[in-house]
Amino acid sequence: LVNRADFLHALEHDIKPAFGTAEDILNQYVARGIINWGAPVTHILEDGNLFAQQARATDTSGLVSVLIEGPPNSGKTALAAQIAKNSDFPFVKVCSPEEMVGFTETAKCLSIRKIFDDAYRSTLSCILVDNIERLLDYGPIGPRYSNLTLQALLVLLKKEPPPGKKLLVICTSSRRQVLEEMEMLSAFTTVLHVPNLSKAEHLLNVLEASEVFSNAELKQITHQVHGKRIFIGIKKLLALIDMIRQTDERMRVIKLITKLEEDGALEDPGMA
Ligand code: ATP
Ligand code: MG
């Protein structure tokens, strides 16, 4: 026979989070690992880890909030999840617009509120708020956004957890400017910028790591991109490499260069 006390005990102690451990949850967002394509990656992870340590330190305030911003496809979500993973905080919750599709403004606010309330109960909590501008229903045409959700988030981003509790909030956005206009930037402890790949060396590092091209092909590519302007997000580049993987080996280099050019990721320096 199971009574109410047993049930509550199980709820408290035995039931694993619905979507697995903190690490399982975060691994979904780092699906393809982190390729160290250049100095920016090292710096973001280093800084992120320092802020996570600050959040854990006993002598500091209980709240550290980090905004990871950069262009679409630059790898913001994966880096945020990696920093959360490195922090090793046992309680992790992800607040993402995907999970709130179709929610009314009120339901959205309540749901965000609940995530924070749950976090306050744990000693070391990490909340990942992915794609803030989408969570706020921001649309560039108009422009419009949910003011109710914005106010809720602003309050929560500034609210200290109860004494003795530590909270690390990591947010991502590809609309730094918009958050600035909403006066949200100042709510963060720090802002870390994630850039696109912008050097031949960055590109080559990723191509090498993908193990799709031979050394001779990598040399050929180096030669072909020499002196050109490179600008591409890691997510887009990895998708492109996946496509190349499927093409005839003899066509791979030309296909890569053509695709990069078509996407505007590879340009002659004269063009702007
Ligand atoms: P969006 O603008 O659509 O939100 P995003 O900037 O959040 O995109 P991610 O969803 O994080 O981009 O996609 C990055 C993908 O690239 C992930 O699958 C990740 O595992 C992989 N990846 C490999 N190396 C890196 C790296 N150095 N930094 C970030 N992501 C990386
Ligand atoms: Mg993202």
Short overview:
The chain is α/β, with parallel strands linked by helices and 272 residues long. It has helices spanning 4-13, 22-27, 39-56, 76-87, 105-120, 132-135, 147-158, 176-181, 200-210, 215-225, 234-245, 252-262, and strands at residues 63-69, 91-95, 124-129, 166-173, 190-193, 229-230, 266-267.
Describe this structure in words.
The chain contains 12 helices and 7 strands. Helices cover 47% and strands 12% of the residues. The longest helix has 18 residues, at 39-56. By secondary structure, the protein is an alpha/beta fold. Helix 5 packs parallel to helix 7. The chain binds adenosine-5'-triphosphate and magnesium ion (MG). Magnesium ion binds at residues 76-77, 130-131, 172.
What would you call the shape? elongated
Average pLDDT for all residues: 92
What share of the residues lie within helices? Answer: 40-55%
Radius of gyration: 21 Å
Counted beta strands: 7
Stretches where pLDDT falls below 50 for ≥5 residues? none
Structural class: alpha/beta
Which strands sit side by side, in order, in the main sheet? 2-3-4-1-5
Set out the fold topology.
Layout: H1 4-13, H2 22-27, H3 39-56, E1 63-69, H4 76-87, E2 91-95, H5 105-120, E3 124-129, H6 132-135, H7 147-158, E4 166-173, H8 176-181, E5 190-193, H9 200-210, H10 215-225, E6 229-230, H11 234-245, H12 252-262, E7 266-267
Parallel strand pairs: 1-4, 1-5, 2-3, 3-4
Antiparallel strand pairs: 6-7
Helix pairs in contact: 3-4, 5-7, 9-10, 9-11, 11-12
The protein binds adenosine-5'-triphosphate (ATP) and magnesium ion (MG).
Magnesium ion is lined by residues 76-77, 130-131, 172.
